[in-house]
Amino acid sequence: MIIGCHVSMSGKDMLLGSVKEALSYGANTFMFYTGAPQNTRRKPVSELKVDEAKALMKENHISLDHVVVHAPYIINLANTVKEETFQLAVDFLKQELERCQEIGTSILVLHPGSHVKAGEEVGLNQIVKGLNEVLKETTYQGKIALETMAGKGSELGKTFEEIQYIISHCDYPEKLGVCLDTCHIHDAGYDLTHFDDVLDKFDQVIGLDRLLVVHLNDSKNICHARKDRHANIGQGYIGFETLNMICHHEKLKDVPIILETPYIDKKPPYKEEIAMLKNQTFEDILK
What is the mean pLDDT of residues 229-235? Predict the structure, then answer.
């Protein structure tokens, strides 16, 4: 099982600190931002202690191929209402891909975008346009993993069909994959208690070969609520039994699984949650 969580990258240790944090949770992979997700300020990659991080990863058998970068939230390729917002998204995504290439990671998770009341078809085509602009000029050798979304507001990517529309209309489909978020697809209306059926649907519409990463999160909402509120493992409407089954599913054995669950009393719960999933035994860590 390839399992980890979102970790920070700050302070003097930067990416080396990210690796240390992941190891402290018992993880064998991790996900990070290359800078703050809410703004465009970025330190040069030369200051991120990448070589030291890679050495520690090698020492602890963490494969760089399984390490995930998450694109900043401010990227919205679906926006047709404000040209400057779309152009910022294109330019900033190009920059993030170049940073990933310099670091050496090969998976960048991206929220597809929100159409901001312009309509789903308009928004989807704008995402395709943006991805084409980005991918035609990048030297990035990895893949963008389009994240499945809950469908709140005007979010796109809430169905497998919307994700496939983007992939099939893009000029560079070989550069695209998918990040399957359990909270998001539950909130979007997929019944995860029948996960084999969900995977079969995914395979029929998109293809399992495109599944690059799983975000494993419980949900504070009932199925089809379209709200996107993450819960701790076993503390939501999806439940431990279902999430544990997903985590250990044979078809996901080579797919990095990343936890993005809420902090408890301002502390990360990842060590306890990863141990639960490894041991396949639920413990109420909210008590």
Answer: 98
